[in-house]
Amino acid sequence: MVYVRSRKFCCCLPVRFGVFCEALIGIAVGGLFAVGGWLQIHSMLKGTLVLSHTQEISLWCLAVSMTIFTLSSLLGFIGAIGRKHSLVSLYGGTITFTTVLSIATGIFFIWNLFHAGGEEQVKKCEQNAQNAQDPSDPNFQQSTTVDNWVCQTGFATGRTVVVVVYVIFWLIQIYGCVIAFNYVSQLEEEEQAQFDHEKPAPQVTIVQPAYAFSERPNYGSGRA
User: From what superkingdom does this record's organism come (predicted)?
Assistant: First the structure.
């Protein structure tokens, strides 16, 4: 085996270890979301779960994409263990696709979150708070005003937290793609180095000059 300098991430960790860990996490997390998505689809098809048309499409997309992500993570896990260039390359391409899809759907969700007033969520929050109070209480009206302020502030804070979580998750996904493709490049270097090492050395043929009468000329005969 020809030695090729290992590429690193986080200053000191080899990229092979990074692909191994992120593929393992992808199997666990992606598998969890995939199983949950298919269970929800099963309930929807049985009629026990009622969703809007948009929610049904989102659920199908989630289940299918997470299933593909889980299978590709499994291939990446096998590729990282066995140093398989094709499997790791396929894994890198798949997580890049899921990252782009995640960013696109996340931006759409955040846009809707900030452009929608959130009145429905705030009203539900107020209703739940009012149900826990006694309408005959003299301070009921004042409590209602406080509940409205709390629900409005909570909704605004929740939107900010969602954005922060999305951005952190996207940065982790993008860095995971960089790690995967760095390992793909390292495997390509290893394969090229192994090919160059096993390639036979070129044959060199030494041709002796031909002399007349099969005798070598006497170069020293003309010297004094």
Answer: Eukaryota
Residue 91 CA to residue 76 CA, distance in Å, equals 5
8-state DSSP, 48: S
Q: Is 43 part of any domain? A: yes
Query: How does pLDDT run across 98-138, given as a tens digit for each residue?
Result: 889 888 877 877 787 777 655 666 666 656 665 555 555 55
137 within domain boundaries: yes
Distance spanning both ends of the chain, measured CA to CA: 62
CA-to-CA distance for 3 and 196, rounded, in angstroms?
Answer: 12
Is 218 within the bounds of a domain?
A: no
Please name the residue that has the structure tokens 């759409």.
Answer: 108
Q: Give the orientation angle of helix 15-46 with respect to helix 140-198, to 10 degrees.
A: 130
CA dist 180 and 1 (Å) reads 22
Q: Which helix (H) or strand (E) is 30 found in, with range? A: helix 15-46
CB neighbourhood size of 83 (10 A): 15
Residue 138: domain span: 13-183
Q: Is residue 73 included in any domain, yes or no?
A: yes
Other Cβ atoms within 10 Å of 22 Cβ, number: 23
- CA-nearest of 42, 61, 59 to 51 is 59
Question: Number of structural domains, the chain?
Answer: 1
